[in-house]
Amino acid sequence: MTKSYLHTPALHILTRTDISDIELPPAEVIRLVEDAYRYYANGASRCPTKLMMPLPKEERDAVSYSMLGYDGALEQLGFKTSYRQGNDNAEKYYTTISLYDDTTGLPFALMDCQRIGGSRTPATTAIIAKYCAKENPESVLMVGTGAQGVNTLAYLLTALPSLKTFRLFGTHPDGIALSLSTFVKYFPDRTIELVDDVPEAVSQSDIVVAASGRAAHPKIQTNWLPAGGLLISVASKGVEAGALHQADYAIATNEGQMGVTGKRLAGEGQVASIDAELPEIVAGRKPGRRSKDDRVFAFSSGMIITDIPVAHAFAMRAISAGRGTRVELWK
To pair with 283 at 20 to 30 A between CA atoms, which of 38, 103, 128, 189? Predict the structure, then answer.
């Protein structure tokens, strides 16, 4: 589709339902997100640090944040907002993204961002594993079965065909079922082992992904990993404070955002510092690890430069299919 549909200032409003059945294969999402990191590393994109604000409500746990960014590949600007009432309450989590076309100066889309986050987050996890796991990893443990985790094992196997053993820890039956069915959808000949002893499973896994909320398991420590292991924290409360300093090599998607949302991982009285940012690694400027035996810790925080191309891909497919509502707010 050309950009002729942007002939007047208007928003295509796309609901969660409008994009719920739009299919983006894992390999395509991984490619979009990896390219986004590369463009950012090369200076073609912009991504200021996330703005995060806890709300002054003593009687409940709530937080809001926003991100602004520019994708130099698509020449699209994006603005993402999120609000969560209750830190682990999926039913009270609302997130949207709006896109603007920098070649025309006109608005493009306003859409629900749940599906986008559920696609770009596992893509980022897969890219971290691709560059930072030891050579030819064979085993992975996924901890958590929420919206950010159900696609992860399928994305990891897409990026790392050497993987043979897949382990999963979760406490929510619906999330476990969805994680299993999603994996089988893409890899019907593979199976997932459900585990209940997280420390033991960590010690046996080359890659560990922690995406649990208020965890019903012992908090994961980097030093539980086997030699050469990789621990990826996806904004997880299931990772022990101080896990960053237990690592032989530490990375983050963005060091500034880690200072906003991941300070506790440095440990009490410690400063959160890393060896490399993921975009630098993808661009070939920094290594993903120093040696085959390094225990690597990776902090994954969402960057809107990765939301923009995924949101754009969903929007283009939805609009082409006649989905959504076109609203001319400025007429």
Answer: 103
